[in-house]
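Why do we care about 3D structure at all? Because function follows from shape, and shape follows, mostly, from sequence. That is the central idea of this module. The next example makes it concrete: a single protein chain, its amino acid sequence, and then its structure expressed as tokens.
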Amino acid sequence: MSPSVVSKPAPQPPHDQFEGLDLGILGVGVAYPPYEVGPDALETIAKRYYPESKALKKVLGINHYTGISTRSTFGDVDHPLVNQTNAPNISELCDLFLTEGVALSVQACKKAIEEWGGTADDITHVVATTCTNSANPGFDHYVVKELGVRHSVEKVLLHGVGCSGGLAALRTAANLALGASFQKRPARILVMACEISSVLVRSELDSIIEEEEIRIGPVLFSDCASALVLSNGVQEEASENEPVYELLGWKHDMLHNTEDDLGFSVHPLGWKVILSARVPKLAAAAVPAVFSDLLKSLPNLKDTSPTAYDWALHPGGSLILSGVEESMNITNSQTRASWHIYKHHGNSSSATIFSVMDQLRKMGEGKEFVVGCAFGPGIAVEMCMLKRRMADLRTPDSGEAALMSEALD
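And the structure:
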């Protein structure tokens, strides 16, 4: 008997690992504190409490050329915490965060929940992140308590992810949602980020004077809370609105041997920003490969050109934004929401990316698909692909057109 012939299976088309995930962002909320300070605020604080030095002079010079008009903060130049004899310690900073930061987070979460159309009782999971507080229990515990979310809700608090925290939290929430989908259970996940960076100004100025080191954290960072609600589409309710964005896929990568380039190290006076001059070039050089890998996981997206997409980039600084634009051959019209947030609010670390996503949908006509991208300590690269709600893809009205024009100036 001759051996049987086993035919090889016919080649299969590439598998879309994100096909049919049914993950939707149903609501987005952003809350900024009531104060806005311009570049002159840093100079005022520096002159009040610090002697002249070469490093300080350089930092104050950079301060007027960041491209930031105003930064959102919890207080003006006369806020008591930044006008003490010494810089506030980590305990004082924690007290501020657990009052003002929690309250701001509650505002952002309420906005996201209201747009979603659900209630606090419907929330199944909470994923939160911050790099400017390390309380135990975490700030998310107090936010959930204030919102009236049930005690048994599953919570995750991410730490150590810095400016990439927003997208890292979204990625974590997406994986939790997929786990619930596998069990045929509904998931309505509240994702939140909160940062209070402005009150670290005295600690940063201390280091500039004591170490004669050029540190640009004080010229970039601001305060913000942001939130969104992610759904896995199981057991949809009539009260729930259609997704603001569909989440199609994501990628995470780490750049080798860059731990000393970008970080946020703990200190008795809070946290110290680590931001080397290499970061803009490292970030820009990393994006093409991560973008290519993301598209490979989404073969149903036929257009591989970066110019086919709008980009929600974390505005870590003007050189990061312009560097990514150059490396991806995209224009500032595609990153318009990032530039707008950067100009008017500054860099609010992990909370910024959801603010950019929220701003983008208010700017009228644009691309159907949006690439979200942020960079964090490590250096970590977080990227995702979003699909916009079609109702938002329209010609902007006069107010929106003015926003777009201003963002591109």
